[in-house]
Amino acid sequence: MKPLHQLLLILGTLSLTITAPLHAAEKKLNVVFILADDLGWGELGSFGQTKIPTPNLDQLAQEGSRFTRHYSGAPVCAPARCVLMTGKHLGHAEIRGNLQAKKSFPQFDEGQYPISESALTMAQVFQKAGYATGAMGKWGLGPVGSTGEPNKKGFDLFFGYNCQAVAHSYYPPYVWRNTEKIIINKNPIPGHAKQPEGEVKMDDWIGETYAPKLMIEEAEGFIQQHAAEPFFLYLAFIEPHVSMHPPRASVERFPEAWDTEPYRGENGYVPHPRPHAAYAAMISDLDGYVGHVMATLKKQGLEDNTLIIFTSDNGTTHPRLASSHFNVGGVDATFFNSTAGLRGFKGSVYEGGIRIPMIARLPGRIPAGAVNETPGFFADWFPTLCEATGVTAPAGLDGQSLWPALTSGKFQERTKPLLWVFPEYEGQVAVRLGGMKVVRQKLKTKKPGPWELYDLTNDPTESQDIAAQHPEIIQQAVDLLKKEVSENPIFPLAIPGVNAPGV
């Protein structure tokens, strides 16, 4: 019996030696995609910010790679999310603006115009491939009960704001868990108000339950619950989108000397006695959420097998009243150098509106501390994440996979169009062709602007229009737009020719 016992032990040891590496090799890659809301190009330490500490995101950049030529899919919230989720650029995307659902579907009292039943999202593809799928934060692609509700578009769990307008308050009356409305504040704080006179008090705009706290707790719980299986987690945090409602403790981390005057709500959203400190607090809190996510992954032993992407949906808020030095919502983009010299803000197809910070981390695959100038945008994430995880990507996507650039740390040439067709904010289009960028503004006004051309390599601030010297590049951009832009009766925008009025 003794020789047999020894033989069984040897065979058992060999079996463990053979099967353990195979099991490890077969473990699928997790994905955590973190999307900030209205975070400007220059508002992270790793992208040049000097006033607001972002240690967790800076560490993410040190352990991963920064992409300095990355763009949103659109200059505002809903269409940017549509491009991200469907892999279709704005010439083909179903949602090309921030249209409220109730304007076309009176049965809904909240939410944005829904993506259709036939629209295929990356979450649906991951779900079909056996991934647990979760989304926390802001949705904006269709109300509960519509064809665009999160559970119908591939998410096992959604928790947060379905509607972008409700997300203007950080102390809303309710949030959604899938199709269930969860009451969280009996006395909600409005997202919009003005106080032209008198003392602006912080406590007047602080409620009972702070919604972002619940969302990060849900994210941590999702990771813990699905640690033993592959998961795709989409964290669409609402910071630093105004209103400015950060907790008092977060505000008080920043110098009182920063604020010599209150914001009174004159440019929308709510007043705040310390707008500089409040805005910094929102970005600092966002950085803290990333720290919570990283700590949870580490605790579950998943930090080396999880691809983390961090980016923003568009640039920081734009000016409104000439009489106020604050931008929309009380943001002081000059004080924080939010665009780091780029032209334009949220709502614009100039660089300040659509170029966004992007950080990617995956130890052993994505080079640590690298800076990559490969141009890319939201439509690229669908094919990129599919290639990274080995999931089969559907045909017909407008983006190209950035996985070779991510893993090599080297510049990757563009093979698919990089363009924006934005019917809002008076109608705008833009095309990036290599280092050149073609722009046209005010297309839905009586006096459309001319075709503009900028050499981003030598003129990143888009200050020198060289369209007159290169009519052939304008023609190339017009031809590309006419080829790539399909009709969309809900979000119409006609593409003019080279010699159309305004040139």
Architecture overview:
This protein has 503 residues and is α/β, with parallel strands linked by helices. It contains 12 helices and 16 strands. Helix 5 packs parallel to helix 7 (275-299). The relative contact order is 0.16.
- Beginning-to-end CA distance, first to last residue: 95 Å
Q: Please state roughly what percent of the residues sit in beta strands, choosing from under 5%, 5-15%, 15-25%, 25-35%, 35-45% or over 45%.
A: 5-15%
CATH architecture of the largest domain: 3-Layer(aba) Sandwich
Largest sheet: 10 strands, mixed
The CATH superfamily name of the largest domain is Alkaline Phosphatase, subunit A
How many distinct domains? 2
How many whole angstroms does the radius of gyration measure?
Answer: 24 Å
Shape: globular
Spans of at least 5 consecutive residues whose pLDDT stays below 50 are: 1-5, 7-25
Topology order in helix (H) and strand (E) letters: HEHEEHHEEEEHEHHEHHEEEHHEEEEH
User: Strand pairing plus helix content: what structural class?
Assistant: alpha/beta
In short:
This protein is of the alpha/beta class. It has helices at 2-26, 55-63, 77-86, 122-128, 211-225, 248-251, 275-299, 333-336, 351-354, 381-389, 403-408, 471-484; strands at residues 30-36, 65-67, 70-71, 132-138, 157-161, 174-177, 180-183, 231-236, 306-312, 358-361, 370-372, 376-377, 418-422, 428-433, 436-440, 452-455.
